[in-house]
């Protein structure tokens, strides 16, 4: 079963604009379903499977009640689309066995519990990611660098 070839299936960028396997976590940013101004930072730690979800301002998600909230489900679904279930399971050290091919299935295989994790680190990685995306794809020299006089011009 070879299905870890990136890029996997197209993702719903509007819902989960950022997902990554980094810092020993599956982590990412999930849009709020009701408020376009608000985003949630959700993460699952590899090995311990501790999960957390909060707003980018570190307000705890109201959907966390001992079980992963809908944002964590969205994050897990997107991770499966992005990386393939095998790679995500390996990274998080989840024994999925056969027949698991969704984020929900993955979460169901983890004995996950809630453990607060700072959102700031993930969120700043997201902002940096956005900054890269917004750079125009161009090989032309950056105009702001022309401001610096070349060496030896003499004044
Ligand atoms: Zn949440």
Short structural description:
Helices cover 28% and strands 15% of the residues. It is α+β, with helices and mostly antiparallel strands. The structure holds zinc ion.
Describe this structure in words.
It is a single chain. The chain is α+β, with helices and mostly antiparallel strands. The chain has four helices and four strands; from the N terminus they run E-E-E-E-H-H-H-H. The chain has helices spanning 70-83, 85-92, 103-108, 119-134, and strands spanning 18-22, 25-31, 39-45, 51-55. It has a four-stranded antiparallel beta sheet, with helices on both faces. The longest helix is centred in the C-terminal third of the chain and has 16 residues, at 119-134. The N and C termini lie far apart (68 Å). Residues 40, 42, 53, 61, 63-64, 69, 71 line the site of zinc ion (ZN).
Beta-strand fraction estimate: 15-25%
How would you state the average pLDDT, rounded? 82
Overall, the morphology is globular
Ions, cofactors and other ligands present here are: zinc ion
Query: Count of DSSP E strands?
Result: 4
Spatial strand sequence of the major β-sheet: 1-2-3-4
Unreliable segments (pLDDT under 50, ≥5 consecutive)?
1-5, 142-154
H-E order: EEEEHHHH
Characteristics of this structure?
155 residues, alpha+beta, 4-stranded antiparallel β-sheet, 4 helices, 4 strands, 28% helix, 15% strand, disordered N terminus, disordered C terminus, binds zinc ion
């Amino acid at each position: 079963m070879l299905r870890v070839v990136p890029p996997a299936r197209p993702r719903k960028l509007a819902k989960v604009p950022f997902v990554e396997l980094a810092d020993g976590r599956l982590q990412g940013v999930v849009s709020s379903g009701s408020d376009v101004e608000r985003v949630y930072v959700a993460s699952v730690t590899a090995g311990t499977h501790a999960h957390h979800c909060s707003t980018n301002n570190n307000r705890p998600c109201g959907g966390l009640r001992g079980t992963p909230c809908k944002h964590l489900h969205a994050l897990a679904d997107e991770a499966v689309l992005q990386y393939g279930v095998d790679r995500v399971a390996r990274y998080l050290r989840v024994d999925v066995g056969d027949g698991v091919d969704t984020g929900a299935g993955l979460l169901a295989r983890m004995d996950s519990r809630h453990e607060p994790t700072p959102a700031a680190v993930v969120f700043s990685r997201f902002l940096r990611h956005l900054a890269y995306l917004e750079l125009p794809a161009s090989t032309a020299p950056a105009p702001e660098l022309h401001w610096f006089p070349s060496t030896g011009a003499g004044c």
